[in-house]
From TrEMBL:
Name of the protein: G-protein coupled receptors family 1 profile domain-containing protein
Location relative to the cell: Membrane
Membrane topology: Multi-pass membrane protein
An example Gene Ontology CC term for this record: plasma membrane
Keywords in alphabetical order: G-protein coupled receptor, Membrane, Receptor, Transducer, Transmembrane, Transmembrane helix
Membrane-spanning segments: 16-40, 52-76, 96-114, 135-157, 177-201, 222-240, 270-286
Top-level lineage group: Eukaryota
UniProt KW Membrane keyword: yes
Domain G-protein coupled receptors family 1 profile: 32-283
Organism: Adineta steineri
GO MF term (any one): G protein-coupled receptor activity
Length: 333
């Protein structure tokens, strides 16, 4: 097989990754994020817990990221539409929104891990200040503002050149590629989640907190730990690929190498978005309260589809389940 034929085959595989995996992932992830918001807002106890408030904020950011940013990437890579590769304004919007929404979304589980550490701290003053709804709200707003400012220069240094959306050469590109990206996607999540998780375990083992293992706190930790593990591990390939792409951006590459690198980039992007897609289903599996709330919501939805006609002769309501149109038509044949 020639290099051109091999490259064409690899590019076809990369396209099919978008059809087979990426599109279903957006759908499942978006539904999961919406359900997370609904479930967490159903119970007052959830709304008063700072860790849940952080996770709720992450779900809200996911509902923005998946349809507005990841969908653009699928349309470009899977369906060969121009969008941000052919228009400077679209390129700047895509790069800016991609990093702000992505980094904000992965920051909130790290804040939740910090809250678990703070809420189990020995000092009451430390707990009351750092593990509070007031501080959580400040942290959530501050996180968005911080990343909005940090990535603001992307609006001015992004452009479409030769039908490719890139970050132009300059000091910010170097800062973004070799400092910000490794910290945000590789070292930061691993370091923060490890420090706060180990700190929480150490606090829980202390005698001061031997009797503070309430049921909700245990469930939150059960939900949070798998999410943090996925966040810490699945971001590594994406971060490495981003740095590699920048290092080799000026290297002459044949079509086969370009195809292989493009396929690897698509694989790392799909792997990375597992972070966004899996959260609700982790919560559903790990938390009894989440399952109970979902059960009540489903039961409530089913009850809305029941018809309760009134029997005039007896004056009693008769409960009758809706009969599908196909069943009715079959009955009178």
């Amino acid at each position: 097989m020639s290099s051109a034929a091999a490259a064409a085959t690899i590019n076809t595989i990369a396209q099919w990754l978008n059809y087979v995996l990426a599109i279903p992932m957006i759908t499942v992830g978006f539904i999961g994020a919406i359900l997370t918001i609904i479930v967490f807002k159903q119970q007052k106890l959830f709304r008063r817990n700072p860790s849940i408030v952080y996770l709720l904020s992450g779900a809200i950011m996911t509902t923005i990221h998946l349809p507005t940013v990841y969908l653009q990437s699928i349309l470009v890579e899977g369906f060969q539409l121009g969008l941000y590769n052919t228009n400077d304004i679209a390129c700047r919007e895509r790069n800016y929104l991609f990093y702000v929404t992505t980094v904000a979304a992965i920051s909130y589980p790290c804040w939740a891990a910090f809250d678990q550490y703070a809420s189990t701290h020995r000092e009451a003053k430390f707990r009351h200040y750092w593990s509070s709804i007031r501080f959580a709200r400040l942290a959530i707003i501050g996180t968005v503002i911080f990343w909005t400012i940090i990535y603001f220069p992307l609006i001015f240094v992004s452009s479409s050149i030769n039908n490719v959306c890139i970050v132009r050469d300059g000091p910010y590109r170097i800062f973004h590629a070799y400092i910000l990206t490794p910290i945000v996607f590789i070292m930061g999540p691993i370091t923060l989640t490890t420090i706060f998780t180990l700190g929480t375990i150490r606090n829980l083992r202390s005698s001061a907190f031997s009797n503070r293992h309430d049921r909700l706190a245990k469930q939150i930790r059960r939900m949070l730990i798998p999410q943090l593990i996925i966040l810490a591990i699945f971001g590594i390939p994406f971060g490495i690929d981003s740095v590699y792409q920048d290092i080799t951006r000026n290297v002459q590459k044949d079509i086969l190498r370009q195809a292989i690198e493009h396929l690897f980039a698509e694989i790392t992007r799909v792997i990375y978005h597992v972070i966004f897609v899996s959260t609700f289903y982790i919560y559903l599996y790990m938390s009894n309260d989440v399952r109970k709330i979902m059960s009540r919501l489903i039961h409530r939805y089913i009850k809305k589809n029941d018809v309760v006609p009134f029997n005039i002769s007896s004056g009693k309501a008769i409960s009758m389940r809706i009969i599908r149109s196909t069943s009715v038509s079959n009955q009178y044949r």
